[in-house]
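Researcher: I'd like a structural prediction for the single chain below. Treat it as a standalone chain; there are no partners to consider.
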Amino acid sequence: MDEFKNSIASSIFNAIDKEVELNDIYDKIEVPKDKKNGDFAYPCFNLAKILKNSPVNIANEICSKIKTDNLIEKVEAVNGFLNFYISKDNIIESTLSEIVMKKENYGKETGRENINIIVEYSSPNIAKPFHLGHLRNTVFGNALYRLYKALGYNVITINHLGDWGRQFGLLIEGYNKYKEEYDIKNDPLKALSQIYTRISKEAKDDEQIMENARNNFKKLEQGDEELLKLWKYFREVSLNEYNRIYNILNIDFSSYNGEAFYNDKMNEVIDILDKKGVLVDSQGAKVVEVASGMPPCIILKSNGSTIYATRDLAAILYRARTYDFEKCIYVTATEQILHFKQIFEVAKYLVDEKYQKGLVHVSYGMIRLKTGKMSTREGNIIYVKDIINDAINKAKKIIEEKSVNIDDIDKVSKQIGVGALVFNYLKSSKSKDIIFDLDETLRFDGETGPYVQYTYVRINSILNKAKFDINNISTNDVNFKILDKKQEVELVKELSKFNDIINSAANEYEPSTLARYLVNIATLFSRFYNECNVLAVDDEKLKLARCVLVYATGIVIKSGLDILGIDCPDKM
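Model: Treating it as a single chain, here is the predicted structure.
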């Protein structure tokens, strides 16, 4: 892929008289979504100011100067775009040879190990069971971590636990009042959640309960030993439960420093803001005025206690000093868009411009049940441990109905069930709300995880039947030119886009780009296999070339699913 983009960038560069950076041209080369617009396209709109001409005229002029060769088969100028068509022989040989050489490293990059990217995700509120909303956040953030890891960055993953705030004053109030009525010993997290739901409803009609909760939290901040002991218990039982889920998802974190970690670091933030003259009084509270159109960012409430904005600002200051990050990515639901706009504005008073520019909020849509929105306070939520068990059990039932001979059916059921859930959350655009439907998620056809996994299983089966061993293959022995059928060419062209897809998904914070790409690969492979015989072909050279294409497809599917955080079973 780099070979083609380098050649295209050079051809454009050489056709332009005025000074333009070669790297800038390279970076703007894209892969068109519509195949009719070529294999690569270059938009000339950015050249209009430099060349003092319209994009259409610029494209036409550059096109007239570019000569086709054995690599670039055709160039067209269309509405300000330059559309490039690559010689199919070159793209097939180049792509398949590169996959055979790099194997599972195909599409990935190195060289950015000294550049730090922080991804903050999952971040559940302790003392509450993990629910479906947490699961979307967790698998989404994990996919971003894996995307940047595939591009060679040093990625720090932070689980910024919601382990501080007034809600714990409320929980303490409910715990002390109702702890004898719940099965805290055998299922502490469920019991704590039920207590919180109950006391929250009561607090709506009883201001004294809310006042007690505020005082409880104030005592926590001041270091009350008994309340801190109780808070530590809430945190411990919560992490025990969360880690069981993280283990199932094969997820780990570099840091579990949550809001409480910054309790002793907020005074510095308050002092800096005060010394810079931006901390002002507002109805008894201390606030910072931010951009017009937004309410001020509250730093201290009227009773002197901090809020999560104060802790987030302390976290920014700490992370800039500790990690020297290029990007600090926050993954949360769309409900927190305003919050992050506010703290990013205030951060300019705390850290250098380099870090301000690196602050990124990636929001995602809500998970909804068919009956409506979930709410812990209302008690209408689905817990992740229950839905994971349901998904695994349903996957196992499907396998048993198919009568597939599998040695470790429990392992495969877990791979399919968990993979189906993860893929379901990642296949949709991040901004889109999702209505959860487990039966739809576990389908073996359509845009689902099991469909893509099954394609990989088919690939393994084909290669085993063909007795194909990549370790005994030299690409010098493969005649790639005989792969000239439409289905073969289309599949290889799609495989050649893998690195661009990874970059696009990372740059746009959109794992769905990769998920949809894998569905497309699986669909193109099915068309290829239906139209192009692999196992029963008489021509051994054609059989070998097609087996290499089958192998290459398997590499991309397995690597792509791994980046999304999904395992591939060998049988299903």
